[in-house]
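so my prof wants the structure for this chain in the tokens format not the other one, which i didnt know existed until like an hour ago. anyway here's the sequence
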Amino acid sequence: MGKLAKMPNTRLLIAQVHELAQRERVTAILSIAAIAMIGWVHWDAVDRPLVIGWIICMSAVQIMRIAAIGIRSPGLAETRSACLRRNGQVAINVLNGLGWGAIWFMLDTGRIDFLFMFKFGAIAGTTGIALNSLSVILPVYLGFLLSQMALTVAYLAGATPFLTPAQRMAFVTGAIVYAIVLCAIARNAARLTRQAMMQEMEREAALIEARESHLRELDLRKSLQAQSRQIEETNQKLNAANERLQVLARQDALTGVANRRHLAEELERNFQTFHRYANQFSLILLDIDHFKGINDLYGHQTGDLVLKATTARILDGLREIDHVGRWGGEEFLCILPNTGFEEALACAERLRRDLASARLVDGEPTLAVTASFGVATCAQDDSIDTLMGRADKALYEAKEKGRNRIVGISAPD
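here's what i got, hopefully its the right format
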């Protein structure tokens, strides 16, 4: 009940007006039939102009009741329109009650007879039927009931000389008691109807809230899924970017082979394998002859093409297990796993002949490129520095001896 008390009066009033309109349509149509029957019963008992006048007036009131059901107030707020419609229904049903009460005066036979008691039955019937339909809004029913009963009591009290005082008192008392009972029943019915409407509105509000909550949950779920997809896509992009960075960190930007950092890691790995499993490996350190002169004569763009083409030639002459990278400038380092000194010399010779016989740059047929090679094989007492030192020393000797040649130093001095 605490929640019901908090329901907005505006919504309740609008619901009451709508419900009353639905019930009024039925009772107004039934009232027209009852009016016709009452007129027919009194047709030969009282003056016909009075019967016809009463039928016309009451039929007009019923038409007003039906017409008022569909009336809207354009331009007015819904709350104000509902208030006007409610007040209109009160006024119309006051007229309706006065019309029913007027049958005592307009259709009076002046004696206690069947028609006298028939009118009592008609009054009781209309007030009882109206209770079910008009008590949705209590003031509407009270307007109908009290106006009708006021004329009934007025008639019984002052326009019935044919009644004895005792009879008059009995009829008046009965009408008043009946009206009080109807008021109490109408009040209770209005309260129950109001509670039912408020509970229905509360259920509808809860249903709407649940539906909206479900829609919000769906929207939130979609939003979270979209965000999750975005995060996943972002992570994929970050992973791809990290992979590219790792490649760039280990790859020479110009030639695409390993850079000096990666070559140093490979050297360390091969040294560990050599000391653990005695897997011998060799190095070939080569340097392009007169590379500065190529840059000066043909330009740096041609020099870059020479470096790329040299890299491709070296890769073609090595095995899949071998590693090659740019050691620096125009120097390249080849790491040959499971390779002895003589095999390394033979590999270097193949590379030298292939490079010397190739024309590396299209459009420059006169450009001949050669390289000097230093070969060294890892020995038991070697470190990375001593091994690289021998390869570098061998390369220096090859250059000193005229370039385009191979010099190898197999073991430490």
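also thought this was worth mentioning. The chain has a mean pLDDT of 88.
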